[in-house]
Amino acid sequence: MSDFNPNVYWEERLTKDIGLHRVGHLAYGKAFNRALYAIRRHVFNAVQQQYLPDISEQSILDCGSGTGFYLNLWNRLSPKSLSGLDFTEASVEFCARRFPHLSIYHADITNADSMSVIPDQSQDVISIFDVLFHVTDDQKYASALHELGRIMKDDGILLYSDNVPRHGTKRERHIVHRSKEDVYALLNTAGFEVLERKPMFYLMGYPIDMKSDLFGKVWNLLMYPVRKSEIMGMIYASVLYFPELFLISFFKESPTTELLICRRKHR
Q1: Which fold has domain 6-264?
Q2: Are the C-beta atoms of 79 and 58 separated by less than 8 Å?
Q3: What is the mean pLDDT of residues 191-204?
């Protein structure tokens, strides 16, 4: 994994064709990714209404903005101020064109010098969705959480999606699924307490939080048609969408990606 360069990987990935399918799951095509982002929108709206019902006086920063999916959701709520941040030029340029009224920072959340453009204790709310499990270097991951704690006001809310398996850390070439124990400890060190964990997916994400790899192998086998056909992606999305909504509403945890709602502790 030492030869993996995330900056080069994401710059090339987004420069070729920027869209939700490029920041989502590359293997599953546009139709299935549209369904995944519809689920994400549902979870975002539910959490926002529960924890942040009025953001008219809030300063919000979206980290790892990508195509601006979450920037758009925040923008519709008319916060006091809203800005985005990404470490790829492709994303920053795209979001700057899409949201010309917003500040879009070209900065690396894992690098303190790069993040110096964001003042200390300046944000009421920070969102960082589907970003930090792509940080494969453990020191950079800890640095990213430290920077989030630095720029967050006391009692500010962090919305942070990740895979937090209970059965130990699992590493791949460009993704690391850090254990729940490790993530909670690092969040605490960075000054955050976890208020709640909510499933973002249940059926439609790889079941990383299982003791046996058999579940993942079965999931990959069942998802194989989606990899090969856009039509099958549409069929799978239509079949799974409403059961997925029910499951993420019913269960408090899931075997795949979850949303952590965190509060910045007083300094």
Answers
A1: Rossmann fold (3.40.50)
A2: yes
A3: 96
Please give the share of the chain, as a percent, with pLDDT higher than 90. 82
Residue 140 CA to its chain's centroid (Å): 16
Is residue 96 predicted with pLDDT exceeding 60?
yes
| C-alpha closest to that of 134 among 211, 39, 64, 223 | 64
The Cα-based distances of 69 to 26, 137, 167 in angstroms read: 16, 26, 31
Element at 138 (helix H, strand E) = helix 138-151
pLDDT for position 53? 95
Task: For residue range 120-146, list pLDDT tens digits in order.
Answer: 999 999 999 999 998 999 999 999 999
Burial 17-52 (b: 16+ CB within 10 A, else e): ebeebbbbbeebbebbbebbbebbebbbeebbeeeb
Q: How many CB atoms lie within 10 A of CB 130?
A: 21
pTM, rounded to two decimals = 0.90
Q: What is the per-residue pLDDT for 18?
A: 59
Q: How many residues are given for the chain?
A: 267
**Positive or negative: CA dihedral 211, 217, 223, 228:** positive
Which sign, positive or negative, has the C-alpha torsion 192, 194, 195, 196?
positive
Long-range Cβ contact pairs of 239-245 (< 8 A, separation 24 or more): 240/35, 240/203, 240/204, 241/35, 241/38, 241/39, 243/203, 244/39, 244/201, 244/202, 244/203, 244/204, 245/39, 245/42
pLDDT band at 15 (very low <50, low <70, confident <90, very high): low
> CA-CA distance, 238 to 231, in Å (whole number)?
11
